[in-house]
Every structure is written in structure tokens, then in C-alpha cells.
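Listing S7. Sequence submitted for prediction.
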Amino acid sequence: MADSEPGIGKKILSFFIKENDETAKPAAVTNPTSEQPKPYVATTVPNVAGTANVDRKFVEHFVSLLEKANLPGPDYFEYKQALQNMEGLGLGEEKQFQAAWASFKAMGGVKDHSILKTSADQYLAILDKDRVSFLTDVEKAIKDRVGSLQEEQRKLEDANTAFAQQIADIQKKMDENKNRLGQISGEVTEQSAKINANKDSFETTYMSFVDQIKSDLNKINQHLK
């Protein structure tokens, strides 16, 4: 897609998710004189394949990533747009892919559909590189947030073992440490759950993008011989 083409991000978005009227609706007004509340925006949206609800923040992240990495000239995204335009014409899948290919070729005189695989592979590589970077950040977050808590927990447990051998006036310090250990246990559970939930949400959205592109490639290989 040409970088100057308006609405490129919106078009890429439409290739991967289904927007509907329910994704944003205004909240109820409790005080007419107060400032109008911001509209409610759903945190998840269904993917085009209908196989999963994906996290909106990661959808927007991937769309922005692909938009910035968009290659000049006709490529996979132009073909995807042409394919999308075939919907509702009553054509079978094979006819849709073939008709889209004919429309795509008319854009820039492309004759070899290998450009579709080449460009799609480049976008897959970009998504994969971003995933590797994200997972690295996840591991660092776990180490920084949870690891330090677990290290603190270990040290306090060791200290309590030593305190148990000492005289009675150490009992107050042991009780304080035990209270902190109880807090740490909850913090470890909470931080781990948040990080892993974010990771799972990323993976679901990532696989939705990858599966969509791979599915298109399989169909391109099947129908455009």
C-alpha cells in the first residue's frame, strides 16, 4: 500500500477484526449538569475468523506496527483489500481469490503472485520479531517484579529460622516478618496473574494475526496456480 493512501490503518484493522455497533456505547448519565462521560469502549473484539475475542490494545499495537512497516507498491495488503471487496458478490472461495487476483494485477501490472507470499512473509517476520521482544520484556518484568519479592520472601524465611533459635525478645521481630510474608504471598500471586494474563492476551491476538495471514497464504497457494 502506498504510504500516502488515507485510512491505511483502518483498512489493515478490518482485515483482522470485526467491528460492530456494540464496541462503543455511551454510559448512562446520572447528573445532567455534570460533564458528559466518555463512551464505553470494549476491551476485546472478535477476530475476522470468528475463532477468538482478541485484546483491543494489542490489536491497535499490531495494526500500528504493520502500518509503519507497510511496503511501497502493491503487496499482500492490496490483495487482501481486493479480496475483501469480493465479499457479498455470491462467489465461491476459489472464485473470490481468483477475482481478487485479477483486480490486484490491474493495480500495478503485477503478474507473479509470489509477491503476495514475499510481502506476507515480511509482515509475519515483523510480527514474530515484535513477539520475541514482548516476551523478553515479560521475562524481565517477572524477574524485576516477582523475583525481587520472592528473594525478599526467601531472606525473611531464613531470618525467621535464625530468630527461632534466639531468645524471647526476638519474638516481636519474627511476628513483624511473618506479617510481611503474608503480604508478599498475595503480591506474588497478584503480580504473576497480571503478567501472565497480559501475556495470554498478547499471544491470543498475535496468533489471530498470524493465523489469518497464514490462512490467506494457504488459500493463495491453493487457488492462484
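Caption to Listing S7: primary sequence and predicted C-alpha cells for the chain studied. Helices lie at 8-16, 56-68, 76-85, 93-108, 114-163, 171-223. The beta strands are 24-25, 40-41, 44-46, 53-55.
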